[in-house]
């Protein structure tokens, strides 16, 4: 069986963001976990136009579509902004449709309350896109898992939750691949 391809999607593009730190830490654990090929997918690299304003032939939209189509599942690195996901993540989700369908996703969130509200909003959006999110949802607090709110220093206990999420993600991604 061909290995699965899992994209670790960074959900923020703002200056000074910490999502690359969280995403790289998750990728290190995922690479040790095995069972798939994992890669960081940074929304910032695609320069997506605001949904509805770019032509379908826009290079960023074409590259985004191709990247999503090449993936069997996702790990979303989600930060909470005003009790929800970032605008750029919502735009990236809306900028594709069938490329998301019948795939699985894990959610890793952070914020003042662990990003739980953002993750719950994301779950509703993923359901509409026919993406099955897995149950285990690692959360990180800005107060205890970050130094000065900008340097990611997760407690060791989070590693187990990441591996549990990956176990579920791999199982669901394999199962859903049979539908595509």
From TrEMBL:
Pfam families, per database record: FMN_red
Q: Name one GO cellular component term.
A: cytosol
Tell me which residues make up the NADPH-dependent FMN reductase-like domain. 5-136
Q: Which residues form a coiled coil?
A: none
Top-rank taxon of the source lineage equals Bacteria
Q: Which GO terms describe its molecular function?
A: FMN binding; oxidoreductase activity
What is the annotated signal peptide range for this record? Answer: none
Q: Which family does it belong to?
A: Belongs to the azoreductase type 2 family.
- Protein name (Swiss-Prot/TrEMBL): NADPH-dependent oxidoreductase
Instruction: State the organism of origin.
Output: Paenibacillus woosongensis
